[in-house]
Amino acid sequence: MKRILFAIVVAMMAMPGIAQHHHAGGRGPQPRPGHHEPRHEARYVEPATNEQVAMVIQVLDNQSFDDKRLEIAKLSVVLAPFRVRDLAQMASRFSFEDRKKEFLIFAYPYCADPENYYDLIDLFSFRSDFDEMMRTVRSR
């Protein structure tokens, strides 16, 4: 398992847009001459590429248990921001609703387009699970 996680980290870090952080294109505070940059300056990181998404999906598909899928999926979203459509593909690999919900709650702060989180409603068998997930992500 450690070899799989290491391979994901190495492969994702080698892809463009992950290892480098880019300034937010004029957004956020700009340091004045002679002053240090703010500690929490907004940074923009490119969303995961189609190749990265495919790699993560392949690794998730090769896992037998949701616990391992969850561990890999969480690591992946920390390494690169994924779009909602990509998170949906990842979440659909989970066998159990509670793991799907746990993953999507965890992934929300890392999502490249959180305004589209409502598009995930079709992933859930019960509307109450979706509503609970949305209440949780909005409260954070």
Structure description:
By secondary structure, the chain is an all-alpha fold. It has one domain. 51% of the residues lie in helices and 3% in strands. The protein contains 6 helices and 2 strands. The protein has a two-stranded antiparallel ribbon with strand order 1-2. The chain is globular and about 35 Å long. The two termini are 31 Å apart.
Write the layout of secondary structure elements.
Elements: H1 2-14, E1 22-23, E2 43-44, H2 50-61, H3 66-79, H4 84-91, H5 97-107, H6 127-139
Antiparallel strand pairs: 1-2
Helix pairs in contact: 1-2, 1-3, 2-3, 3-5, 5-6
Order of helices and strands: HEEHHHHH
Query: Widest sheet: strand order?
Result: 1-2
Largest sheet: 2 strands, antiparallel
Our Rg estimate from Cα atoms comes to 17 Å
What keywords describe this structure?
140 residues, two-stranded antiparallel sheet, 2 strands, 51% helix
Summarize, please.
With 140 residues, the protein is mainly α. It contains 6 helices and 2 strands.
